[in-house]
Amino acid sequence: DCATQAALAQAVLKRNGFEAKIVAGYAAWRVGEGDSDVISHLADVGKSPDQPGGKVFHVWLEHDNRYLDFTTYQLKEKAKHLDALDGGVTKVDWCPDYLYVDKFKVHSVHDVIQKHTGLFHYKKDAQVESFVLPALTPIKDDGSDADLIAL
């Protein structure tokens, strides 16, 4: 759903005079202070994104040297889903409605995993973009998708 949300957001922004680029890669968010309070979409070490089990990625927007992610409101739901899969317990204290942050404020994966709540990591990846971006269906602003992006 991150790809769909990025495409919809891009169309809404374009309709309002702002150009944003869809990018894909890897991301992680530190949502609480506990050891397991990290949600991530990171590459499986040693696996290509186009191999089975390697298709963990995230899609967001880039605008004026900033990253814009409209999916962070889902972090609580993502944590519940992941906990159901692995039996873990993820405490989500940080779940912003969205992120619009300068690229230089992005943290390393290590910092997100090791440090405090509210840190995030985004890293564009050309290999991920090579298979994700061509598969995106562009949102048409010709009336056929207008109901989807009407403000």
Can you put this structure into words, describing what you see?
The protein has 151 residues and is α+β, with helices and mostly antiparallel strands. The protein is built from 5 helices and 6 strands. Strands 1, 2, 3, 4, 5 and 6 form a 6-stranded antiparallel β-sheet that branches. The two termini are 20 Å apart. 26% of the residues are buried.
Write the layout of secondary structure elements.
Layout: H1 2-15, E1 21-30, E2 38-41, E3 58-63, E4 66-69, H2 75-86, E5 99-102, H3 109-114, E6 120-124, H4 126-132, H5 146-149
Antiparallel strand pairs: 1-2, 1-3, 1-6, 3-4, 4-5
Mean pLDDT: 89
Spell out the helices and strands N to C. HEEEEHEHEHH
**Classification by helices and strands:** alpha+beta
Topology, number of strands: 6
How do you describe this structure in short?
With 151 residues, this protein is of the alpha+beta class. It has helices at 2-15, 75-86, 109-114, 126-132, 146-149, and strands at residues 21-30, 38-41, 58-63, 66-69, 99-102, 120-124.
What are its keywords?
single chain; 151 residues; alpha+beta; 6 strands
